[in-house]
Write a sequence for this structure.
């Protein structure tokens, strides 16, 4: 008889643990849905400021040949790009304003183009020339 009583107790504990596990699983799923649920596209952030881009071409001053791999940095930002095989570069995501654009290239003088105006809704294009370092 005592054996049946123990089996009954074990069975009751087993059922209780199943119910607890099921309840925890339901709570976990519900909490996950609440955390990751969207707010039906009701944005509470302010609209983003207009961003601009600037592009250009960098050539050798004396030959007019396109320079490949020139480092172009926009001062005051984290923007760093390199010219392609045609000497072209492009920087996106800039705010309108005045910027200094720095260039560096092996065997050429590092150059800073100061107060370059970048305007919204306008094609901001530069043609820049670099001088070779004289030996």
């Amino acid at each position: 008889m005592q054996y049946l009583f123990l089996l009954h107790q074990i069975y009751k504990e087993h059922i209780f643990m199943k119910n607890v596990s099921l309840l925890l699983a339901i709570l976990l799923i519900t909490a996950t849905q609440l955390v990751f649920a969207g707010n039906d596209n009701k944005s509470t952030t302010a609209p983003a400021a207009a961003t601009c881009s600037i592009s250009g071409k960098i050539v050798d001053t004396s030959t007019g040949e396109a320079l490949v791999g020139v480092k172009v940095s926009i001062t005051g930002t984290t923007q760093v790009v390199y010219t392609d095989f045609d000497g072209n570069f492009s920087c996106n995501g800039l705010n309108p304003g005045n910027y200094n654009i720095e260039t560096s290239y092996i065997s050429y003088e590092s150059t800073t183009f100061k107060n370059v105006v970048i305007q919204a809704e306008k094609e901001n294009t530069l043609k820049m020339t670099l001088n070779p370092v004289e030996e």
User: Anything to note?
Assistant: The beta strands are 52-60, 71-74, 80-82, 88-94, 97-104, 111-118, 125-130. The chain has a mean pLDDT of 82.
